[in-house]
Amino acid sequence: MTKFDELIQQQLKLADQMIYTREEIQKLEVKLSVSDETTKTIMLEKKERLMLLEEEFERLIENVISTFENTAIY
């Protein structure tokens, strides 16, 4: 179960990063005018980072499920 526990910890850490990134995006959207090119660039970079985190999170979930299914129960 050690591998499973490690995967769960990774999943929780990644979820925290996703939440933090999403909150950053929301704060920037509220504070800054999206018409500004610099702001648009920052927003696009943050949204791209969030998308990559979400994809990694989905892969991690699949890995957690696979590991759990292959873990012997005593």
What does this structure look like?
- The protein is mostly helical.
- Helices cover 85% and strands 0% of the residues.
- The protein is built from 2 helices and no strands.
- It has helices at 2-31, 37-69.
- Helix 1 (2-31) packs antiparallel against helix 2 (37-69).
- It is elongated.
- The termini are close together.
- The model has no long low-confidence stretch (mean pLDDT 85).
Runs in which pLDDT lies below 50 for 5 or more consecutive residues are none
Helix % is over 70%
Q: What amount of the residues lies in strands? A: under 5%
Distance between the termini: 11 Å
Our Rg estimate from Cα atoms comes to: 17 Å
Structural class computed from helices and strand pairing: mainly alpha
Shape: elongated
N-to-C SSE series?
Answer: HH
SSE topology sketch:
Blueprint: H1 2-31, H2 37-69
Give the gist of this structure.
This protein is an all-alpha fold and 74 residues long. Helix content is 85%, strand content 0%. The model has no long low-confidence stretch (mean pLDDT 85).
